[in-house]
Specification:
Blueprint (H helix, E strand, L loop, with lengths): L2 H40 L6 H15 L3 H25 L4 H9 L2 H10 L2 H20 L7 H13 L2 H27 L7 E4 L5 E7 L18 H5 L2 E8 L5 H8 L1 E2 L6 E5 H7 L3 E6 L9 H7 L4 E4 L15 H10 L6 E6 L7 H4 L10 H26 L4 E7 L4 E2 L9 E2 L12 E5 L5 E9 L3 H8 L2 E3 L17 E4 L2 E4 L14
The structure holds zinc ion.
The site of zinc ion has 5 residues, from loops.
Organism: Photobacterium iliopiscarium
Keywords: Cell membrane, Membrane, Transferase, Transmembrane, Transmembrane helix
Main location: membrane
């Protein structure tokens, strides 16, 4: 090799090597940045991504200076965050509702959830997994001032999205454990109702507890597609302004069906023990699960009923029972002879995700499958209510039926013409639900425009069944005082309903 060539090679290879090192460092920076963004989005802090994601990026850079720091700090929390990615991307950061849903979900629900995840989310999750592995194995930034770097790394981590994630996980789980303890203890307690007067007006009371039904998609509340034809015309009182206590079944219902003022719970003083104390026969029919499976919170109330039947039994593949299966059970309950008044509660699956699994047939057949099935579940619930009202009419006895939904949903789709409605707690529509009464002595279709909180449902209920107690005011929907400062349980705290954002309904183009 001549002298000139040798000089070239001597310069070329080292500079290639330097370029490669610079490129690798550059790649390391890019991957660490991508990892911090994905981790922040994946644990549900998209709206503050610049600040909390930025701190995470700096923390990841500083803490990479030592291998053991990465494996001790970043690995365990990052791994949990990676596993949480799909839930976080769709439902946001952890709150008591998400913790309850994750812990009380059965196998069938997990399968339904995994099938409903859009392909985009799976791809992002894979990219997260790849960048996370690369970071753990390859990324290492060296610094001179080791102690300063370590302290800076810890401070940045403290302000990062992952630290927020850990504290939200902790608070939510703590709340959830408190709630479960209160509910479990209540099963063995007896209520201390002090009954002043008990004079039920009707022979049969029916309470239908709906699921995930937003008021604004109901034609009875003005939606342009005829999603609830029976409720839109039947004589009854429709409350326009009823707000659920919270945004998830397991958090909302124990605060609706028992005394609660917010975070507190008094599960033993509930609708069933009140009706029992008023000498009514109480029957609970449910298409949702029983203790240990899906809906612990509600079963702790149901357990006090003199008769209860749960349709969700057997293994997860056979128990996707339709709400229609409740109808023969309802007929039997109605036919049982009883001298006093009866309370029959029906807890339906209603419009629970995934909507297409809830129905026999998609009756709308829109291109927007999610919305089409969602509206079909409305139609199904409408038909079920209609059938029950007809059964009640056929008895020729006096009756009253109340229907409400446990919470609403919000749309997370960013594609126009494609809806993806999920549980959430940031929008008004997560709480705006129907409250409807139909009775043998109500002959007009009335819309009552008034904001009423489901935290007052116990008062409404005691008035409905004609009971006065020392513990509760007994007021109907007309008598309840106007309250402009209604609060709802959003995440782990009580917030003013009017401070929430709007999530307008999507109207399908046919
Ligand atoms: Zn629910």
């Amino acid at each position: 090799m001549c002298q000139k060539h040798y000089a070239y090679v001597r310069i070329f290879f080292p500079s290639l090597f330097v370029c490669l090192i610079i490129f690798m460092k550059y790649l390391d920076v890019v991957i660490t940045l991508l990892l911090s963004l994905l981790l922040t989005i994946g644990v549900g802090y998209e709206d503050t991504i610049i600040s909390v994601g930025g701190y995470l990026f700096l923390a990841l850079i500083f803490l990479s200076s030592k291998q053991w720091l990465k494996w001790l700090f970043i690995f365990p929390i990052g791994l949990i965050a990676t596993l949480y990615f799909q839930t976080g991307y769709i439902y946001g950061h952890p709150n008591i509702g998400i913790v309850a849903s994750l812990l009380e979900t059965n196998k069938r629900e997990i399968i339904e959830f995994l099938f409903a995840i859009p392909i985009k989310v799976w791809i992002l999750n894979l990219i997260l997994l790849a960048t996370f592995s690369y970071y753990l194995i390859r990324v290492e930034f060296e610094f001179k001032w080791r102690k300063v770097v370590f302290v800076s790394g810890c401070i940045c981590f403290y302000f990062s999205s992952l630290s927020l994630f850990v504290s939200h996980c902790y608070n939510s789980t703590e709340h959830y454990i408190k709630q479960i303890d209160a509910l479990k203890n209540s099963i063995h307690q007896s209520a201390n109702w002090h009954i002043l007067k008990a004079k039920p007006r009707y022979k049969t009371y029916v309470l239908i507890i709906g699921e995930s039904m937003r008021k604004d998609y109901m034609s009875s509340y003005g939606y342009p597609i005829n999603s609830t034809p029976f409720l839109a015309t039947t004589p009854g009182i429709l409350v326009n302004g009823y707000l659920s206590t919270a945004s998830h079944t397991a958090v909302s219902l124990p605060r609706t069906l028992a005394i609660s003022h917010g975070l507190d719970l008094h599960p033993v003083n509930n609708i069933i023990t009140l009706a029992n104390a008023a000498k009514m026969k109480t029957i609970w029919l449910s298409n949702q699960g029983f203790i240990g499976q899906y809906d612990t919170a509600v079963s702790a109330i149901a357990v006090h009923a003199s008769e209860k039947k749960f349709l969700k039994k057997g293994n997860f593949l056979t128990n996707n029972t339709s709400d229609y299966a409740l109808l023969p059970l309802f007929k039997q309950a109605l036919a049982q002879p009883y001298n006093g008044s009866k309370l029959i509660v029906l807890h339906i699956m209603g419009s629970h995700e995934n909507f297409c699994d809830r129905i026999k047939k998609d009756i709308y057949n829109f291109k927007d499958k999610d919305l089409s099935c969602y509206l079909s579940t409305y139609n199904q619930t409408d038909t079920i209510i209609k059938t029950i009202v007809n059964d009640l009419k056929a008895t020729q006895d006096s009756y009253s039926l109340m229907y409400f939904s446990d919470h609403g949903l919000n749309n997370v789709s960013t594609i126009k013409g494609k809806t993806q409605l999920v549980h959430g707690d940031l929008y008004k529509q997560n709480y705006e639900v129907p409250l409807i009464e139909i009775a043998s002595d109500i002959h007009q279709h009335t819309m009552l425009n008034k904001q009423i909180s489901a935290f007052d449902f116990m008062s409404i209920f005691s008035n409905w069944i004609g009971v006065k107690t020392a513990q509760l005011p007994s007021l109907n929907v007309y008598q309840l005082p106007q309250n402009k400062k209604i609060q709802v349980l959003s995440g782990n705290q009580m917030v003013l309903f009017k401070s929430l954002k709007n999530d307008p309904d999507e109207i399908i183009q046919r």
